[in-house]
Amino acid sequence: MVRNISQRSLLIVKNIIASFFVKGWSAVIVLLMVPLTLKMLGAYSNGVWLTISGILIWIDFMDIGLGNGLRNTVAEYVAQGDDNKTRMAVSSAFFMLTLIIIPMLMVFCLLIQLLDMYSMLGISSTIVPHLDGILTFAIMMTSITFILKAIGNLYMGLQLPAVSNLIMSLGQTLSLLLTFLVYMLGCRSLMYVVIINTLSPLLVWGAFFPYTFYYRYPQYRPSIKFIDKLTSKKLCSQGIKFFVLQIFSVVLFASVNVIISKLFSPSEVTPYQIAYRYFSLVLVLFNIIALPFWNATTDAYSRGDLFWIKNSSRKLDLVVGLSFLALVMMVLVSGLAYSLWIGNEVTIPIGLSVAMAAYIFVLIVSLRYSYFLNGVNELGIQLVFTILATVAFVPLSWYAGSTFRDVTAIVWVMCLINVPGMLANAWKFYQIFYRNKRDDHKM
Questions:
Q1: Contact at 8 Å (CB) between 293 and 312?
Q2: CA distance 416 to 414
Q3: CA dihedral 79, 151, 234, 388 (to 10 degrees)
Q4: pLDDT digits (tens, 9 = 90+) for 388-406
Q5: How far apart are CA 7 and CA 13, in angstroms?
Q6: What is the pLDDT of residues 49-85, one digit of tens each?
Q7: Pick from 277, 303, 414, 289: which is nearest to 5 by CA?
Q8: DSSP secondary-structure letter at 115?
């Protein structure tokens, strides 16, 4: 058992180190992309792009939880050394994702044609022409990418999140390079930004399909012959809770841009997103360290290795403490950081920075527990509190924004409605992993 623990921990360390480089580069890309698109489009059109990108997130999370179900199932079967079952899981997942996305794409395109998207999103047709075409293209590219992202879930299940992060980082890099090229050529329209940012990830994920299934892991290559009804049911049963959790989480996250755009103006989305991307650097760093523990927990729990889980949990407590200190320091230097980053084109009040830092910290503490819970498919309490938070968010944020006429008020609502879920995750974690008082020295 010592060997298994050492291999598991060593794999986590390797992935954390690799992910630091990959995610570090991704963070640099985000920092470079924000001022670039802002200069290219201006505050108003940039706010529209951020609103559209928020809507596209909805598609990514419409996989009925199959992605997360796949990663947990792969982790389980790989631990058992069963390549055939793993291939069945991969094949079934790709098949079901295709069945999901085709009707969903048709519905989205139909709604775009039937509804007045300008009115729904509070966008001026004079400033932003051809919105229907822009949305249709973006949704089509994102829908195809939606299927290919199952490759990333496979790597997650193999406890190789660094590879999944690398694929996403390469897509971001291509987007940055093409955006800079278009900017230098003087083609500064929203359409170009949408094409680049939705087509680039598709090209990269498409390139990794043959690499993964014809070179690196041919034993897991999806095939119609390996589509299995029982495996599909298992993926769905594991994934449906993830799906509900994802749906409500994405509604909570993506609706913020729409609410800000409707209550104020698309231009007000920009300072909110700048503050979020600035402070979410800490969240990115935390996820680099914490995310590998998800499927490592699946492996450890399936072996009855509670000692490893508890020991890992104590290590993450230290990471949470360091995250808090980092957020405090970022608030203190936020004025200088914004000035160096985006210049004087957009003003971000100190109140917004404080609220955003508090919100990010609540997310970090909540994720510190939920990654362990996700690894053992204990999602019930997360579902309850995420649903309650989402239901409460829209009316509360609308009321706060209308009353105080300030985006900061909406961020404080986001923070407060997530606190109960954070506390519930902590309670459930200790109930599961510490309820058994026997000696768990399985090494």
A1: yes
A2: 6
A3: 110
A4: 888 888 889 888 888 888 8
A5: 10
A6: 888 887 787 777 666 667 777 888 888 788 777 889 8
A7: 303
A8: S
